[in-house]
Design goal:
Number of helices: 15
Order of helices and strands: HHHHHHHHHHHHHHH
Shape: globular
Strand content: under 5%
Largest sheet: none
Radius of gyration: 22 Å
Helix content: 55-70%
Number of strands: 0
Low-confidence stretches: 12-16, 18-61, 352-361
Mean pLDDT: 79
């Protein structure tokens, strides 16, 4: 019990500091307002003030001038991923005393895992504060990425930290109440959305992927849907509801509860899809600029594929990377909506090198 209170108290302490940035309570840095990173209202069309001096060469020239290797530029820090989880090995027919010791060591291992995950969020938050000083005022994270003020790894550090910070307060309460039983409560009640990604246990990660891929398969079985190649971000509201629903299911943009009651949250889904498409478009640009798919780590390759509606369970890393390269090549001829609403077998065939110019979706 003392350990549980200690870890939960740390979680709430970290959240109280991080929420200052999330809700704009503290005074933002003059070079980068807190709302540009922490607010969920990322703007891709934010007007750049006239007094902001842009570099003579932007985008790739700014990033390439650094000494970072392609792997360091593409991959975010390991602190944005869950730490290793080492559990005691189960042995059948244990005596009662040894069985109690086994459960005690298991609970202690989970608490240590959650403590490391919470510390990682705090470390990421401190790194994020340093990144704010490099981004001119008025630019969103996506604009800063395109203009070369951020590498892809730094961009994903911002995205993941902002998401994790928003989950810490509720997770701290769950951890305080449930303690060692937190992972079982989270899995049984389906509270993954309340847990920071740095605190997701391996079973939780695999379970979420299985559910998402099963939902994606069911959506494709309902019929072949072809996205409009000419559709850009500004035309999301004009998309048929069938495409909105399909892409929403494929990417897990809305809860399956809406499917059970037979209602689709169209306004919310359109808004969220616009944000997701903007992020994917910026990420495609950064993947090409910062070195290519081959320099992504195994886990980052899976995450990049998941964000694009590609299955990853049971597939080797080489196959996942090949699918990502196919995506990047197909982007030269198709819109993001067309690729998200169809299987890779329906995409244009790869042609030449995987080069994508900076353009609209």
């Amino acid at each position: 019990m003392p350990l549980r209170r200690h870890y939960a108290a740390q979680c709430i302490f970290y959240s109280s500091n991080c929420r200052q940035a999330l809700y704009g309570i503290h005074r933002p840095h003059p070079a980068f307002p807190a709302s540009a990173i922490y607010s969920s209202r990322f703007k891709s069309d934010v007007a750049i003030p006239h007094n902001v001096q842009r570099p003579a060469t932007v985008s790739s020239d700014v990033v390439k001038s650094t000494s970072l290797s392609p792997a360091a530029a593409l991959n975010p820090p390991h602190s944005t991923l869950p730490p290793p989880l080492s559990l005691p090995q189960w042995e059948p027919n244990l005596p009662k005393l040894d069985l109690l010791k086994f459960y005690y060591r298991t609970g202690k291992a989970y608490l240590s895992f959650y403590k490391s995950g919470i510390k990682a969020v705090w470390a990421n938050y401190k790194s994020l504060r340093q990144l704010r000083t490099r981004i001119p005022s008025g630019r969103s994270a996506e604009q800063a990425l395109r203009d070369g003020y951020l590498t892809r790894g730094e961009y994903h550090l911002i995205r993941r930290t902002r998401s994790d910070i928003s989950r810490i307060p509720l997770f701290g309460v769950v951890l305080l109440i449930c303690g060692e039983f937190t992972p079982f409560v989270v899995l049984f009640l389906g509270l993954s959305g309340a847990v920071p990604k740095t605190c997701h246990v391996p079973k939780q990660v695999d379970g979420a992927r299985e559910k998402l891929e099963a939902r994606r398969r069911d959506s494709f079985r309902q019929g072949t849907i072809t996205g409009n190649n000419s559709t850009d971000v500004g035309d999301i509201t004009k998309l048929p509801k069938s495409i909105l629903a399909h892409v929403g299911k494929s990417l897990g943009l809305y809860s399956s509860l809406w499917d059970r009651i037979g209602v689709m949250p169209t306004p919310f889904l359109s808004w969220r899809m616009r944000k997701v498409v903007e992020k994917i478009d910026a990420d495609d640009f950064a993947l090409e600029r910062d070195g290519g798919i081959e320099h992504l780590s195994d886990e980052e390759s899976k995450r990049a594929a998941e964000e694009r509606g590609l299955d990853v369970l049971g597939k080797p890393t080489s196959e996942v990377r090949a699918a990502l390269n196919h995506w990047l090549d197909a982007r030269k001829q198709s819109s993001i909506f067309h690729l998200l609403s169809t299987r890779p077998s329906a995409w244009p065939r790869p042609q030449g090198k995987h080069l994508i110019e900076k353009r609209k979706v």
